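Input record, target 12 of the design panel.
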């Protein structure tokens, strides 16, 4: 099995399938992150991937810079969200100036960072009173077939974190304020397979394990009627968290 570091850095080779398979973020959940930051805030999307969160931030009026450690992911982002500045960097080493941002947001990425170092960097680049926002799209496993899908493809690092006691931040940030947003995504069998293939466990799995996952999921997708171009609703819960720099 791949190490945590290998899994964290695995997405670049699957950038296209990540863009196809992962959902965007609900505007209301992203608006919750931006609310305290004022009009047209300058925000960095850290661990921006292919731009799933970046495009929603920009659409809500934020002045966004995308920061991502993988060059291939940034190339995909530049094509899907043209005009947004991009920077190679990590949460622990941000290529941004001191006090230059109103907000720093992490979409589907905080579970990969070292919280103490990341919070120290966040405090460096945020102005006084600036906001730190964390957000995840999580499949709603209260629905039986969704829970069965997760069991087949194994829980992700994010799902394991939430099964424990959720995300944490460190000094100088205060406790996180949390908001939950339930919604559904209309998907096809092709969409579902793309989502599965974009996950770090599947990307880094050996061929035999990937074949097992694909075979068992095909049986499940037949059962729920995700056949051909038929659409099924995949329920999600988006968990959004925010806090402020003193």
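The sequence produced for target 12 reads:
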């Amino acid at each position: 099995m791949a190490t945590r570091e290998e899994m964290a850095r695995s997405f670049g080779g699957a950038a296209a399938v990540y863009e196809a398979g992962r959902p965007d973020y609900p505007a209301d959940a992203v608006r919750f992150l931006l609310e305290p930051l004022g009009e047209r805030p300058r925000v960095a999307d850290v661990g921006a991937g292919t731009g799933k969160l970046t495009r929603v931030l920009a659409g809500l009026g934020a002045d966004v810079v995308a920061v991502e450690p993988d060059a291939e992911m940034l190339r995909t982002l530049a094509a899907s969200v043209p005009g947004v500045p991009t920077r190679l960097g990590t949460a622990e080493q941000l290529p941004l100036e001191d006090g230059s941002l109103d907000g720093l947001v992490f979409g589907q990425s905080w579970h990969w960072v070292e919280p103490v170092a990341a919070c120290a960097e966040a405090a460096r680049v945020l102005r006084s009173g600036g906001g730190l926002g964390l957000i995840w799209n999580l499949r709603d496993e209260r629905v039986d077939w969704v829970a069965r899908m997760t069991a087949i493809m194994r829980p992700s690092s994010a799902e394991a974190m939430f099964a424990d006691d959720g995300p944490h931040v460190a000094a100088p940030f205060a406790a996180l304020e949390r908001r939950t947003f339930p919604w559904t995504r209309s998907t096809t069998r092709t969409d579902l397979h793309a989502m599965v293939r974009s996950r770090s466990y599947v990307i880094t799995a050996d061929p035999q394990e990937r074949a097992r996952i694909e075979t068992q999921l095909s049986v499940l997708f037949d059962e729920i009627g995700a056949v051909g171009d038929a659409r099924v609703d995949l329920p999600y819960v988006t968990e959004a968290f925010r806090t402020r720099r003193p």
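Strands lie at 42-46, 63-68, 86-88, 101-107, 126-139, 177-187, 232-244.
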